[in-house]
Request: fold
Amino acid sequence: MKDGGVEREFTVYFFDTDAGGVVHNLTYLRWIEAVRTDLAEELGWGIGEMVGGEHGCPVLTKTEVEYLRPARLGDRVRVVSRLGKVGKVRFTVESEVRGVEGEVFCRARQELVAVDLKTGKAKGLREDWQKKHGS
Reply:
């Protein structure tokens, strides 16, 4: 993990684009979702823990996206995600999708809440996260 974040590279394939060869807006969100999951794993909240653990599952409640320039078919992109603000129930993740030359294609800020999958109710965030990353 670099600077409190994680990153992963993707290649833009045909299924990522529209008819004009420009990356579809949902593709950016799919990439961000993958890297956000990597970030959670790196921070000790892996998929197994999310589904069956005592700390609940992080559920996306809000996404703000700023599309700055289009990525295109064949481009290599790097998604970087970092943990943002951590509260008692909610936390944020900030992400950027960049090209290999450093150009920024997209920025996103997402808010999540830990939810007990059995009851569907929000629960307090992990105490270890609140202590280590809380604001």
Notes: Residues 5-133 form a domain with the Thiol Ester Dehydrase; Chain A fold (CATH 3.10.129.10).
